[in-house]
């Protein structure tokens, strides 16, 4: 999941205050309970499930919004512009007519692994 470059900014949210190993083990167990599998999950479905998992750890609307923004940054990193339905009420999609350049002129796949400057 983290190695794919799809959840580079979301990964620290998954860790929380636990070790990365413990955190991913908990997420894997939760995914298996939810889906009956922990592999071969389509990216939109995996993103939705990770979002739901992270929401189980918070009660704050501000945290929910922050999680959504972080996940949208990760999801759209690979030049995806389709806002997943579970994020549509929480994020603003960019204008489809504008094209975002990859940082440092890297190919898109490598650019996914770059953290965008704030």
Task: Kindly describe this structure.
There is one protein chain. The protein has 5 helices and no strands. The chain is mainly alpha-helical and 118 residues long. The protein has one domain (11-111). The longest helix is centred in the middle third of the chain and has 17 residues, at 61-77. 13% of the residues are buried. The model has no long low-confidence stretch (mean pLDDT 82).
The class by helix and strand makeup works out as mainly alpha
Give the low-pLDDT segments. none
Number of helices: 5
Distance between the termini: 23 Å
Compute the CA-based radius of gyration.
14 Å
Question: What would the average pLDDT be, to the nearest integer?
Answer: 82
User: Which H/E pattern describes the elements?
Assistant: HHHHH
Number of domains: 1
Percent of residues in β-strands = under 5%
Major sheet attributes: none
Helicity, as a percent range:
40-55%
Shape: globular
Total number of strands: 0
Entry keywords:
118 residues; mainly alpha; 5 helices
Short characterization:
By secondary structure, the chain is mainly alpha-helical. Helices cover 47% and strands 0% of the residues. The chain has one domain.
